[in-house]
Write a structure and sequence with these properties.
The structure holds 2 protein chains of 2 kinds. Helices cover 71% and strands 0% of the residues of chain A. Chain A is an all-alpha fold. Chain A has a single domain, classed as Orthogonal Bundle (MetI-like fold), CATH 1.10.3720.10. Chain A is globular, with a radius of gyration of 24 Å. Chain A starts with 10 loop residues before the first helix and ends in an 8-residue tail after the last helix. Chain B has a two-stranded antiparallel sheet. In chain B, strand 1 and strand 2 form a beta hairpin. Chain B has helices at 3-37, 52-59, 61-95, 98-109, 116-127, 132-139, 153-177, 181-189, 194-222, 226-232, 239-249, 253-278, 282-287, and strands at residues 39-43, 46-49. Chain B has 13 helices and 2 strands; from the N terminus they run αββαααααααααααα. Classes of the chains: A mainly alpha, B mainly alpha. At the A-B interface, helix 1, helix 3, helix 4, helix 5 and helix 6 of A face helix 1, helix 3, helix 4, helix 5 and helix 6 of B.
Chain lengths: 292, 289
């Protein structure tokens, strides 16, 4: 070991320190490992003893072991989560890109306060984001119904409200991610292209957007993951069509734990692991986008 | 059209969606729940302005006890997350070798990408009466019968620290990363003990990260729902659960909105006091994120 003034100097202390780190990572991994592992246990309950390996909790077709891929409600939940995630991520990346340009490229009165306001949605508890949008949308819907006699079901609990609720705080995340990259952009590149006679739109499409691409992709992935996993805000706004986290929660609360939920956990962990890795890889390569 | 006009136009085109988002989805809805919390129901569809919802809250010990309990537990969880997370962040930022540093940091982030629900589910499988820990304890002869480790406060705290500790580690690593080792060396050369150097040099340097981490962790804990409800069971007495019950189960929006306003006000006050005590401000704290 090299000398490091920041590290404990006595070997005993160093070993204790490493032991602590090991314990910490065991603590981090333990619930995730068991949540995934028991998807493969050939038993009715996700508990010991280990009854041997099986894939029935994924592919089983008949009672008592109906696997995840034959469980209609879970599959519907998965599809709903995908739908919501794709829509809300696309919307929040678009809005985030606009915000990034607004705050990085322009000056306007009250900019500092508005910047704080832009960050605020991240610190409001999700449950409160949910109820505030529920109340606001219902107030408008009731007003419209009283005044005009229309029933705007769009503003009643359901997927459109879930999208709005998630969009309201995901946009903060996408704005911060995209603005961070735009800040590092060398404006001389744009000026050079303008001097060479390219129009504003062309410069944006051929120089600035390609430069931003890693951040756009990464913001999309992060927004998608956060949307997919969101529970608190979604819980308050959900209607009859429920995303996966809500379906799964109902199962845990009503039926109790069954290994099919471990199978869901396993799929979710693998899926978000792959996506998270992808977002890291996309952001890693600093040259990507500027030279193609 | 002159270029100044074009610039003005694009500013307006960018400002409009930003303004719509903040106004329609954040500011107006927040004002909306304040409005709902200030109305009293006097008949079907008939309301008058008044503070009755707030006096109801104060008149019902179970309500304000739940809020106090949530606040105290959240402060406890924040303190524990700092205690547990600081050594890990310090190791990653200051001690680990270059290559293992990134790996350790990414390892820390893995649970971040897993849904709260999956994490809570994992704890349930580990800790319930028929769970892994109970079975292993029985097999090793340490206990004679099944032990129920769920549905108590300690488990809720452990589960909450687990959920939030990463949000403590990330800002700590990024502030500690900026600290030059020569600061520590200078402190030691000047005769400071390691403890003094830690207390007088490392901690003050890390303060913006500590404060940022504590704010995020505290807000997340106070606003959490799944972990206390699933790990605490019926006795969890968590304030967000009260909000949910009022809104969805009892359909009493006035009471639910009042609770929401109180939770937000209460957590904001705690954060503000924390900032004042540590001499930090919100802008600098936000910037370190």
């Amino acid at each position: 070991m090299t000398m490091n003034v920041a590290a404990p100097q006595s070997p005993l202390l160093r070993w204790i320190y490493r032991g602590y780190l090991l314990a910490f990572f065991v603590y981090l991994a333990a619930p995730l490992l068991v949540a995934g592992l028991f998807a493969f246990n050939d038993s009715q309950f996700p508990s010991l003893p280990w009854q041997g390996w099986t894939l029935d909790w994924f592919f089983g077709e008949a009672d008592p072991k109906v696997g995840l891929f034959h469980d209609r409600r879970l599959i519907e939940g998965l599809a709903t989560s995908f739908k919501v995630g794709l829509v809300v991520s696309a919307l929040s990346v678009l809005a985030g890109m606009g915000n990034a340009f607004l705050f990085e490229r322009y000056d306007f009165p009250g900019k500092r306060y508005l910047y704080v306001l832009m960050v605020v949605p991240l610190v409001i508890p999700g449950v409160i984001v949910g109820i505030s949008i529920l109340v606001f949308a219902s107030t408008i819907a009731n007003g419209v119904e009283d005044a005009l006699g229309w029933d705007w079901s769009l503003l009643r609990p359901g997927l459109p409200l879930v999208v709005l609720g998630q969009f309201s705080f995901l946009t903060t995340i996408t704005s911060l991610v995209i603005a961070a990259r735009l800040r590092k952009f060398d404006i001389a590149l744009e000026e050079a292209a303008l001097n060479l006679g390219a129009g504003r739109g062309r410069v944006l499409a051929t120089i600035t957007i390609p430069y931003l691409m890693p951040a756009l992709v990464s913001a999309f992935i992060v927004a998608f993951l956060v949307s997919f996993e969101n529970f608190n805000t979604t819980l308050m706004l959900v209607g009859s069509e429920a995303p996966l986290t809500i379906t799964m929660y109902d199962r845990v609360a009503k039926v109790g734990s069954t290994p099919v939920l471990n199978a869901v956990s396993f799929v979710l962990m693998v899926g978000s692991g792959v996506l998270a890795l992808l977002s890291v890889i996309v952001q890693r390569d600093p040259k990507r986008g500027t030279d193609d | 059209m002159s270029s100044a006009d074009a610039r003005r136009l694009s500013l307006i085109l960018l400002f409009a969606p930003f303004f719509l988002w903040i106004a329609v989805l954040i500011v107006l809805p927040q004002l909306g729940i304040v409005g709902v919390s200030l109305r009293e129901k006097i008949g079907p569809g008939e309301y008058v302005f008044g503070l009755a919802n707030y006096s109801d809250f104060l008149g019902q010990p179970i309500y304000w006890n739940t809020l106090l309990r949530t606040a105290v537990m959240s402060i406890l969880v924040t303190a524990l997350a700092l205690l547990v997370g600081f050594p890990v962040a310090y190791y990653i930022a200051k001690i680990a070798h270059r290559r293992s540093r990134t790996a350790l940091f990414l390892l820390c982030l893995v649970p971040l990408w897993v849904s709260d629900l999956v994490r809570a589910f994992g704890w349930i499988i580990l800790l319930r009466e028929t769970g892994v820990v109970s079975t292993v304890l029985q097999a090793t002869g340490l206990v004679s019968g099944p032990v129920e480790l769920l549905y108590n406060d300690a488990t809720v705290v452990v589960g909450l620290v687990y959920t939030v500790v990463l949000f403590m580690i990330v800002p700590l690593v990024s502030t500690l990363d900026g600290m030059d080792d020569s600061l520590i060396e200078a402190g030691l050369n000047l005769g400071g003990s390691r403890l003094t150097v830690f207390r007088r040099i490392v901690v003050p340097y890390a303060m913006p990260g500590i404060v940022a981490g504590c704010i995020i962790v505290f807000m997340m804990t106070a606003g959490s729902y799944l972990t206390p409800v699933l790990l605490g069971g019926k006795n969890s007495m968590w304030f967000t659960e009260q909000i949910y019950n009022q809104f969805i189960t009892r359909y009493n929006w006035e009471a639910g909105a009042t609770f929401g306003v109180l939770l937000l006000a209460f957590t904001s006050i705690v954060v503000w006091v924390g900032l004042r005590l540590t001499g930090q401000n919100l802008a600098s704290t936000v910037a370190t994120r």
